[in-house]
Amino acid sequence: MIPEAVWREVVIEGEGQAEAGEIKASPWIKTKLVRNTQLAQALRQELDPGEAEAIALAVEAEAQLLLMDDRIGRDSARHLGLHFTGLVGVLIEAKKKGFIEAVKPDLDALRDKAGFRLDEVLYTRVLRDEGEV
What we know:
Elements: E1 2-3, H1 4-12, H2 18-25, E2 31-32, H3 37-43, H4 49-61, E3 66-67, H5 71-79, E4 84-85, H6 87-96, H7 104-112, H8 120-129
Helix pairs in contact: 1-2, 1-4, 3-4
């Protein structure tokens, strides 16, 4: 489930990017309108619209898990009592469940091809913890 702001950012504004088409075609991704506009607006004081709406939607839906990489967004989610993980956490879980053999190729692709900002200390720690150094 993603809020409309994330849909706009990724699918509409990101038109032509590979992930835009994948998300648009994915039958398992559902777009939801955030009803608690006051919370979303308050969160926009420090977050971009997509992150603000994602947190507001997670609160509304009583979501079990929120995907959030932004540090300030994670702090806001923690303050609201939400459980969250980031993309690195998703990759680690995918490896544990056997969906991928290693996290390093995906971390490298995210960093080198997609421009994903990944702290070098975190990168090294994840590879060490996953036995990929």
